[in-house]
Amino acid sequence: MSGTAAEDGRPADAVSGHWVERAAPRPWRPYLRLARIDRPIGWWLLLLPCWWSSALAAIKADLSFPDPWHCLLFLIGAVAMRGAGSTYNDIADRDLDAQVERTRQRPLPSGQVRPRHAALFLLAQLLVGLAVLLQFNEQAVLVGLCSLLPVAIYPFMKRVMPMPQAVLGLAFAWGALMGWAALFARLDAPALLLYAGTICWVVGYDTIYAVQDIEDDEIAGIHSSARLFGRHVRGAVGLCYALAALFVALAAWGAGAGLVGFLGVAAFAAHLGWQVLSLRERDGRGALTLFRSNRDAGLILFVGLSADALLRSLS
């Protein structure tokens, strides 16, 4: 692929060699970038709490594994709603994005997509998400609809709130409630504990992500937890991750998890600890690598909880 990212209309932090850039029709590419299809880490991080919650519910209900149909619906919904959230965020942030080196080539600030076209694209993705949500029971539908509030206010929090990642945590952690609600048609203590732990996880990993933009954010006046914590960013992320592991462990205990489930929690916690030890202040490239590694951390926990459900059903 020839040319620079700017010449090709790609953002400065575009994923090199992704099929969106290699194979997608050129007119589609700005919209696929707008939905972050070229950055699957976003929908993974939205999906994994849903799968954790499904696995935790399976343990509580003495099922052999998380409901496969629910897990598939969560996958489709995560891709659609990640795209919708990113599109909405970019519509709201297009002026701020134009001031940050990493984001000024995104489709909206660069003029590749007009705001009204982005709004129509947003609506289409929301309709896909709604179609998925309506496949669940009434209580789960209600829980899912409530997630729209933190999603709606998050883009504006970085203008007024020292740590907007807290609001992002409320939104991105919502899946921790959904798997439980989908199976039991209610919310119990293990789901709420899992939600609390997932919020801490999101604040931790998004603080790592924000390390990339500290200098530009300072110039543009954008708030972030990375700016707030400054030289103490590693300790702050460590605290978030320690609380995440604690709440997840309590959720597993409340659901009746056995040894294998807690080994999964321990492996998850160990991965988070490795991230903290590897984090370097103002090392943007290293921060991005650590941020993306949270997909693996989340899969480790999901496998541990799912294996616990399977073993318990066989015993």
From TrEMBL:
Lipid bilayer topology: Multi-pass membrane protein
PROSITE patterns linked to this entry: UBIA
Cofactor entry: Mg(2+)
InterPro entries: HB_polyprenyltransferase-like (IPR006370), Prenyltransferase (IPR039653), UbiA_prenyltransferase (IPR000537), UbiA_prenylTrfase_CS (IPR030470), UbiA_sf (IPR044878)
Gene3D superfamilies: UbiA prenyltransferase
Catalytic activity, as annotated: all-trans-octaprenyl diphosphate + 4-hydroxybenzoate = 4-hydroxy-3-(all-trans-octaprenyl)benzoate + diphosphate
Membrane-crossing residue ranges in chain numbering: 41-59, 118-134, 140-157, 166-185, 191-211, 232-253, 259-277
Pfam families the record matches: UbiA (PF01040)
Pathway(s) where this gene product acts: Cofactor biosynthesis; ubiquinone biosynthesis
Subcellular location: Cell inner membrane; Membrane
Its job: Catalyzes the prenylation of para-hydroxybenzoate (PHB) with an all-trans polyprenyl group. Mediates the second step in the final reaction sequence of ubiquinone-8 (UQ-8) biosynthesis, which is the condensation of the polyisoprenoid side chain with PHB, generating the first membrane-bound Q intermediate 3-octaprenyl-4-hydroxybenzoate.
Protein name per its UniProtKB record: 4-hydroxybenzoate octaprenyltransferase
Organism for this UniProt entry: Methylobacterium brachiatum
Highest classification ranks of the organism: Bacteria, Pseudomonadati, Pseudomonadota, Alphaproteobacteria, Hyphomicrobiales
